[in-house]
Amino acid sequence: MRTLLLALLPLAACTSAKNDSAVDDTSVDTGAVDTADSGAVDTTDTSDTADTGTGSELVVPGFATALTQSGGCGDVALAAWNDDSTLVYTFATAGLVAEAYAAGGPVTRTWSFPIVGDAELPPDLVVQEGRYLTDAFCDDVIERPPEVVRTWIPVQGTLTLTITPSGTDPQPWDSPAEARLEHAYAAFVPADDPTAVPVEAGDVLIEARVGWLPG
């Protein structure tokens, strides 16, 4: 009997060592450390959005690509907007259609932002967020008054507008012309927070018929 017990002792020792090893391996392989370092901090990193400090879901970097619709009228008003008219880029200046007809051909104007001093008269240019923002644009029948939530102003980019006459008998109410407006490297800040980090829109391009009046 003593001989049998002595023979079993090494086996018991091995079994105990094996069990101890299994416990150790299991605790190491749980991946607790790896799980804690799984990158949760990275997935919640919103530093790019936070840098704008605006909280806007529409005016975000590259938002010019969302402006899929455009139009124009008068002398001269132009706009580009998204599909549901909750975001709109509007431009207005005076007299370029008449100047193009007087010149007998295309006229071009260029503005650079930010505009400093009185070296050049800036156009009326803003980006707005809200609802029904184009209902009153180039339209004398307003069914749903625009509801503006926030207005943005340009602080960067080069704006180039070319007006080309397309008629032969201009009238005060209809002087057909083609407009091409390009705002390269555009960037905007909220009008109510002009020191905010600018949001880069990308390039805005509008091509539209102008020179006509609504009504």
| Average pLDDT metric | 80
Number of domains: 2
Total strands: 8
- The helix count comes to 5
SS content category: alpha+beta
The whole-angstrom Rg is 33 Å
How is this structure best described in words?
By secondary structure, this protein is of the alpha+beta class. The chain has two domains: 2-36; 48-212, no CATH class. Helix content is 24%, strand content 38%. It is built from five helices and eight strands. The chain has helices at residues 2-29, 32-36, 40-43, 47-52, 96-103; strands at residues 69-73, 77-81, 87-92, 107-113, 124-131, 147-165, 174-190, 199-212. The protein is globular. It starts with a helix and ends with a strand. Mean pLDDT is 80; it is low at 1-53.
Task: Give the arrangement of secondary structure elements.
Elements: H1 2-29, H2 32-36, H3 40-43, H4 47-52, E1 69-73, E2 77-81, E3 87-92, H5 96-103, E4 107-113, E5 124-131, E6 147-165, E7 174-190, E8 199-212
Antiparallel strand pairs: 1-2, 2-3, 3-5, 4-6, 5-6, 6-7, 7-8
